[in-house]
Design brief:
The complex is a heterotrimer of chains A (285), B (278) and C (487).
Chain A: H1 3-36, E1 39-41, E2 48-50, H2 54-61, H3 63-94, H4 101-109, H5 116-127, H6 148-174, H7 177-185, H8 190-201, H9 203-218, H10 222-227, H11 239-244, H12 249-284
Antiparallel strand pairs in A: 1-2
Helix pairs in contact in A: 1-12, 2-12, 3-6, 3-9, 5-6, 6-9, 9-12
Chain B: H1 9-38, H2 41-46, H3 60-67, H4 70-101, H5 107-116, H6 122-136, H7 142-146, H8 153-164, H9 168-176, H10 181-192, H11 194-209, H12 213-218, H13 227-237, H14 242-262, H15 264-272
Helix pairs in contact in B: 1-14, 3-14, 4-8, 4-11, 8-11, 11-15, 13-14
Chain C: H1 10-23, E1 35-36, E2 42-43, E3 59-65, H2 69-85, E4 89-95, H3 100-110, E5 119-123, H4 127-133, E6 136-137, H5 139-145, H6 155-160, E7 162-163, E8 166-167, E9 171-175, E10 177-182, H7 183-188, H8 200-212, E11 220-223, H9 226-235, H10 242-245, H11 261-275, E12 279-282, H12 290-296, E13 302-306, H13 310-316, E14 336-339, E15 353-360, H14 365-378, H15 381-391, H16 404-410, H17 416-430, H18 443-458, H19 464-484
Parallel strand pairs in C: 3-4, 3-5, 11-12, 11-13
Antiparallel strand pairs in C: 1-2, 5-15, 6-15, 7-8, 9-15, 10-13, 10-14
The chains are: A mainly alpha (285), B mainly alpha (278), C alpha/beta (487).
Chain lengths: 285, 278, 487
Amino acid sequence: MSRRAKDAVLGWCLLVPSAAVFAAFVFYPLYRLVDLGLHQRNRFGTAERYVGPSQYVDVLTGEEFRSGLWVTVRFVLLTVPIGLALGILLAVAADRRLRGIKVFQTIFSSTVASSVAVASVIFLVLVNPQIGFFGDVRFLSLAHTDSALRGIALSAVWANLGLTFIIVLAALQAVPEEIDEAAVLDGYGPVRKLFRITLPLISPTLLFLVVVLVIFGFQAFGQVEILTGGGPAGATETLVYKIFNSQQPLDQGEGAVMAVGLFGLTFVVSLLQIALLERRVHYGR
Amino acid sequence: MAADAPRSPWRRAGWYGVLTAMSVVVLFPIYTTLVRALSTPASYFREGQPLRPVDVQWDVFSRAFSEGDLGRKAVTSAVVTVLIVGTQLATSVIAAYAFAFLEFPGRRILFSAFMATLMLPIEVTLIANVQTMRVLGWLNSYQGLAAPFLATAFGTFLLRQGFLGIPPDLRDAATLDGFGHLSFMRRVALPLTRPIVASFAVVSFLAAWNQYTWPRAVVTESRWETIQIGLRSLSAATVDQGNVALAAALIAAVPVLALLVFLQRHLIRGLTAGAVKG
Amino acid sequence: MRSPRRFGRPLVVVLAAAVLAASCGGGDDGATSPTTGADGEVQLPECPVDALDAVTDPVEVVVWHTQTARPLETLIALVDEYNASQSKVRVRLESQGASYPEIQRKFNEALPSKQLPAMVVVDDTFTQSMADSGVVLPAQSCFEADGYDLDQLVETASSYYTIDGVLWPATAGLGNVLLFYNRDHFRQAGLDPDDPPETLAEVREMAQAIKAAGVADAPFVHEFSSWKTEFWLTGAGSSVVDNDNGRGPDDTTAGTLTDNPEALELFTWFEQMQADGLLNAVPATPGQIDQYLAIANESSSILIDSSSSATSIEAFLGGQEVTGVEGAPSPSGLDLGVGTFPGLTGPGRTQMGGDAWYLMSTTPDEVQAGAWDFMRFMNSTHAQAQNLLGGSYMPWLAAANEDPAVAAYYAGESGIAGAWLKLANDLVGAIDPDFPGPLIGPYDEFREAIQKAQDGLVFGDSSPEEALAEAQAAVDAALERYNEGSF
């Protein structure tokens, strides 16, 4: 066998383990989901019938999916802009040569250690309406349908602070000294420098961060389960929460359609990211 | 591009003030958690929820350990995490190697397919994957907990970037010296990309240890719960002793906090790779 | 897929039974559903009570449950006691979360693959769907195999859990509802602290007095689980579904929530209380205890909630060292009083509540036998008494109520919770055995419908009529789907 042929075979072989995992746990499930979405099962899982694409139309335009979608989108809108802004604030503040700055940097990164479960249990006692520290802050109340999502969003914003801080700080530190010095020489004050020079320079990173935070937001589940159980009155049921609770035979068809819908959403966002980044690459350089 | 230290001591003090205030805000939730974990719940409410512990119960941490069976759950989490990280490293390294150094038909398409898996997180494929686990009898098992995560496109991407950064001359020199792929990988590629591999391992550990949704879906027996899921059941089961669950939450965060403190560089590099150019 | 009810011509019946047995869950397990033979007599599947005799290694019996707090501690103690008392059976408890809807989901999810434990403890509403699921061994056959006289059980309980002469759960902890109120608040508002409200109208009056006296801002705290609403309706004699509240001979096909004066009255009462600022509404999130906390921190004065939390409340308020003198202040400083259930029209009429233990027929015979042996223990006077003393579940074994320890407990001699539970037990005894509560196949969907409707009323902006109409539509759809059965 020629060298090229050997290389080719080796190439495929090295991909097999990953490919096998992906085939079994990513692509096959996608196919299964699409198939499940075309069927309905009875309560005891003993019978199944084909209902066809009409189930897709019914579910995707139906109340469950629309409310789940709205809650999910609203959650993303509540967590991403504020999270990003706070991360930038912390990073800008901590990006200076001061004695002991590393301590502050470690503190600001610390929330990256909190998992969804840990952050939710912690915030449960902070925003719980009866016993929480901020329990009687109506704006964040977990007991009211309009504010419950905000209470959950607060826990997510806090939990994401560490990650956001770390990434923005790294981006800031990668900006060359010369640019900074040039800006100062040109008479830019600190605020103007931040908005006119610094942020635009790190915008690819910010964009990447936005996409990461948005995708995290789409996956919101644990926080909802621990903090509100989807309530009050289903006001905090995100798409993943609904999907997770649609595993009974009776709900599987609907759940599968919603999962496919969520995939579509993630797909669109990813495409947007690729498109936007491509443009940056072409114009930015 | 760190800002220079301010000349005037007043401004310096001002910045320390600002940074301290920010730290207080960031650490506040953890502080109150610690306070409440140590306090006796009924007394704590009676005193109007102050900022210091009330009627301290020092044994709350050991109680959390025993009531929440945290020892076993930590072991389960640890086993699953090591399984995932170890296997992810293996599968990602070889896949990245193939994409970086080998030519084979369909390379472009396969790479796109790999990257496409990033759009199908476990949350989307949950229902179908749980069914698969039921059929395989893998509910409540290490393999059930780890299987969907044994390979990752993120790791493949990251390590491929690292491999692509190796100067082509080194590659040519190695070929001339008669190195086969295995030798090249062991003696040149991996040592050169060690920082990236280490960073990936750290980030992978973080993600695996903190997982919630998949373990929640695949575990129905309490003895198979990971520590994260255990937090939820504990907080429900001890709803009349709120401090126990809080103590458990603090315990659950310790391994990753340790990671942050001791492996900070690796963690940061792993998180920022791909995010920050240059 | 209901047990055949009609006793028509023999051939039709035999054919129908055969078809139904084949189509009801799990064709190969048709033997686990009671069938009606040609002579109209019900054939029960066999309970393998002797399967333990041949066993040498201990048999593991897994029990799924959702207990928390004190009831959980009590259950663990009972299981430990049973395991230590013999060597053939090892019972292992598996918590499936903190709420009944969650264990219901887990159960439903496991159904198709039949990956079920030996026993499942669910709430009291599961009876019909358990009967229809095809995976449950009706306890009736085990009781009969043991020659057990079912008259030993509390009448309202056995009538509630019996369908067509077949008793389904192997044991049941009875629960009911209690009124908790802050006697200090009553005193401060000029109300008699020994005279708790007995109707909803009185609750409203007293709440108004308390609010007017500036003692509490929203005196009546209520966690909006749907079961409480069912208690009010059943207590007032109001059916929530057709076919005689589900217990009649026909198929249950529709809800009866619209055109239901009691339902409308109740929902309007909720709305009014909220509009007048008298209501501290707590959403029904699983695993939370906010309504108790509102009483504990005295932001509210009156609570109507489950009797099974009595021992937990007692412990939480630090009342463990309290002398049994009723009305004596507990160490937490809270002077808590307890009253009977204030109904729509009168006091003390409720519905059956609590939990029910079902035997799965999908496990090997030895496991079923082991589970039944455990049930013999749980049905003993001792265990039934313990379940009351530690877990707040009232016994379904009538004799347990006469046990000296229990009698002393009810007299309040070992803690105030005892006197509280005496009240709850009286409520259980006062349930009308002919109207103990609805029997609905898709009860979980029914509850969800009521839940959503209430949530829309209290946390949203639906009117009582709108909320009830929405609930009705959901219930009708659920019943239709259930009756469609296998397609």
